[in-house]
Design a protein that fits this description.
By secondary structure, the protein is mostly beta strands. It is about 5% helix and about 45% strand. Strand 51 and strand 52 form a beta hairpin.
């Protein structure tokens, strides 16, 4: 009775039987072509089960629960034997359908160690193969020929299929344009899991693949969910290919090549991570390649890319990443242009080694010379590439104020465009310039570039070979505009600087701030812009002063600001060249008195911290505490004191709070010690 129920289940799933065929159970270990190996399990009531070799009309069940055999081997003395499922082929081993359940099965030829038997499946004659319930296919190459789109050629459920063998095709799944394969909850290993050059359909969910080749053809329809695809043998390359116009859907997919990885696509989105597992220094890869260079669409990785310990990474065309980019290598490609900043090789100042070639990247004929790297999405990303990471064209296109933070150095041989979001440069005390861009840097409206300072007081500097254009009227430290609150150096290195600034200063007097500056040399300098801020971060342009233009003698300029003044007023000078390039001066802080106000400046502070008390007659107690709340300095002021200072030279760099209490008035502020 149990046998009949299982046979009926098979019938309901695939409608696989007809009046001519019978369902045969493999019940001995004597061989496929031995009649005694097979027994009828859909025997009509009152009849005796027959035993015979299956034909193209019969459904075959290989079930441990029915036969009691945990291991079954289909062996043949023929080199590369073939099995036909759902075919009208009248020679060789054949059946109409095959159901393997809870059994270890080998399709093999003892005469060929490097290749297994081939199982050909044709749905045009209602053929199919079902592998489920903890089955284990040791060897066998499954070729899915399709023919009936309503039938899944091969389905693997909660089972093991094959193994990745270093020098032989023990297991493969290959499918033609009209064929379908569906795998769920299974572990699969083999030389290739591949569709034909055009068409085909795969569905994979909660699976682990170990393979050399995972190929999805042109115009194919494929879904991969919650799965890992890897090759777990050293010195084996791994190709992941998505064809043109493919309907590819993925979620939580992890590509984990051991080394030598090629990712080829044209506009498909991989929702998951790409990680080189181990590899070795000098091992090469990965390569992100355009499927169709004549009509390129970007490779899109909606996740992280970590390439591990490899010597190179190749990008042909465009690569878009939403997550982090990290790598170990101190080598990338040794044919970019040789450019110098202050008589020092550009790759040295950018912290990138092994780039002494004198071939211009503009004329490079090698692969991977020209490409565009774009960071997109709504989450923060990090570039963490040991030794520095060179890019041909860099685009920051983050949603809202999401950031791309550069942990090490970054070299862009072409242009940089910050369309939205922010590029954040963390300083590196071993590198003169954290960010080097040989072309133009364009900050679109809503995009931002932020030069930061670390706890040791080191600022992030950048060198630009082209022009720097900021389309934002004011900087916003959280997102938009060029934000350089810590006076990071911005060097234009392909031509003389537009201006050499000697000093920039200011003082408060008679309800106004008088600003002054002087230049030693001006070359094509067009004008100066005075920018003002009340927080030291967000600046607004409020005055333009014409420059002398071209001069080698000292020039002095001044301006008086009698607009709204309150507390600390921050100023910086924007020096603009005739071709639109510009650079910034340091930021100065000027305190304006107010009634019953407490002013603490400058912030950040290097040595002396000044406190201004306006209209406060009582005695005052001042306390400074570090980030842990430990009091590090105290000061008592007599009644009527209006100005005081505290020497902070002995304090470690960091964030501190200063509390000022005078009678019932209490004020607490934070400041940064550089």
């Amino acid at each position: 009775m149990k046998q009949v129920v299982i046979a009926i289940a098979c019938l309901n799933m695939y409608a696989c039987l007809n009046a001519q065929g019978i369902t045969l159970l493999y019940n001995t270990d004597m061989g496929w072509n031995d009649p005694l190996s097979w027994i009828q399990i859909n025997t009509p009531v009152g009849q005796t089960a027959i035993q015979r070799v299956p034909t193209e009309l019969d459904d075959v069940v290989i079930s441990n629960s029915l036969s009691g055999l945990s291991t079954v081997g289909f062996l043949s003395d023929i080199v590369n034997p073939e099995f036909f499922v759902g075919s009208n082929n009248t020679s060789g081993y054949r059946c109409k359908s095959m159901h393997i359940s809870n059994t270890m099965v080998t399709f093999d030829s003892p005469n060929d160690i490097d290749a297994a038997a081939r199982i050909n499946i044709y749905t045009s004659n209602s053929g199919f193969a079902l592998i489920d319930s903890g089955s284990d296919i040791i060897r066998g190459q499954f070729y899915l020929n399709g023919g009936n789109p309503a039938i899944t050629d091969l389905e693997v459920i909660n089972s093991n299929f094959g193994v990745l063998f270093s020098h032989g095709d023990w297991c493969d799944i290959l499918w033609q344009p009209s064929a379908k394969v569906r795998v769920t909850g299974s572990t699969l290993g083999g030389h290739s899991f591949a569709s034909s050059s055009t068409g085909g359909e795969m569905y994979a969910s909660n699976c682990t693949f170990s393979t050399n080749n995972f190929i999805l053809g042109d115009n194919s329809t494929d879904t991969i969910l919650n799965s890992t695809i890897t090759n777990d043998i050293n010195n084996l390359g791994f190709n992941f290919f998505i064809g043109r116009n493919a309907n590819f859907v993925s979620a939580n997919v992890s590509l984990e090549p051991f080394e030598g990885f090629n990712f080829t696509s044209s506009g498909s989105v991989l929702n998951g991570n790409v990680t080189t597992i181990t590899g070795y220094a000098g091992g090469g890869g990965p390569n992100f390649l355009q499927e169709d260079p004549a009509n390129p669409l970007p490779n899109i990785i909606n996740g992280n890319v970590s390439v591990g310990e490899v010597s190179t990474i190749g990008i042909s065309g465009d690569l878009k990443i939403s997550g982090n980019l990290s790598g170990f290598s101190d080598d990338f490609y040794n044919n970019p242009a040789q450019v110098f900043v202050n008589e020092q090789d550009i790759f040295e100042v950018a912290g990138i080694t092994n780039y002494q070639g004198n071939v211009s990247i503009n004329n490079c004929l090698q692969d991977y010379c020209h490409y565009k790297l774009e960071f997109f999405g709504s989450t923060n990303s990090n570039i963490d590439w040991y030794g520095g990471f060179p890019v041909d064209t860099l685009i920051i296109n983050k949603t809202g104020c999401a950031k791309v933070t550069c942990t090490n150095s970054l070299y862009v041989s072409g242009a940089t465009r910050i369309e939205s979001g922010q590029l954040v440069l963390n300083p590196n005390d071993t590198i003169a310039y954290k960010f080097v861009c040989a072309g133009n840097v364009d900050i679109a409206q809503g995009g931002g570039l932020f030069l930061r300072k670390d706890a040791a007081g080191i600022t992030a500097n950048m060198a630009i070979g082209g022009t720097l254009t900021d389309h934002n009227s004011a900087a916003d430290s959280t997102c938009a505009g060029l934000s350089n609150p810590y006076d990071g150096i911005i060097t234009f290195y392909t031509a003389a600087l537009p201006v050499t600034l000697l000093d920039f200063y200011g003082r408060y007097s008679n309800k106004a701030v008088t600003l002054g500056w002087s230049t030693e040399r001006e070359i094509n300098t067009k004008y100066f812009v005075i920018e003002k801020s009340f927080d030291g971060m967000s600046f607004v342009s409020f005055a333009n002063i014409a420059a002398s233009g071209n001069t080698q003698s000292k020039k002095t300029y001044g301006y008086t600001d009698n607009t709204s003044l309150k507390g600390i007023n921050y100023y910086r000078l924007k020096m603009v060249d005739a071709d639109g390039r510009f650079t910034y001066s340091k930021i100065i802080a000027i305190a304006a008195p107010a009634i019953n106000a407490i002013t603490v400046f400058p912030n950040p502070v290097k040595d002396k911290l000044f406190i201004r008390l306006a209209g406060i007659p009582a005695a005052t107690e001042i306390t400074i505490a570090d980030a842990k709340g430990t009091i590090v300095k105290q000061l008592q002021l007599e009644a009527g004191t209006t100005d005081a200072s505290i020497n902070t030279m002995g304090l470690p760099a960091g964030v501190y709070s200063i509390s000022i209490q005078s009678g019932k008035l209490k004020n607490t502020q934070q400041f940064i010690k550089e």
